[in-house]
TrEMBL record:
<dbReference type="Pfam" id="PF22704">
    <property type="entry name" value="CBM13-like"/>
</dbReference>
<feature type="domain" description="Alpha-galactosidase CBM13">
    <location>
        <begin position="2"/>
        <end position="73"/>
    </location>
</feature>
<protein>
    <recommendedName>
        <fullName>Alpha-galactosidase CBM13 domain-containing protein</fullName>
    </recommendedName>
</protein>
<dbReference type="InterPro" id="IPR055240">
    <property type="entry name" value="CBM13-like"/>
</dbReference>
<dbReference type="InterPro" id="IPR008979">
    <property type="entry name" value="Galactose-bd-like_sf"/>
</dbReference>
Amino acid sequence: MRFDDVVVGKAGTYWIKVSYVSGDARSVDVCANTGGATRHTFPPTGDRGPVETVSVPVTLKAGGNTVTFDSGPG
């Protein structure tokens, strides 16, 4: 999943809040712009709920950014 035009006024590390539901622990690589991806593992929420949230850090440049979440194939 890719988010284009993530705009910030000042370069730095920002926390992105992610809401999700998953019966199993799920790993995702998070990347901003052309930087290297950082792997994060989200804990399971149970079979059909509740919705959980986690915050992941990303380093953004001033102005427009692209943030990508990649959980691999499947």
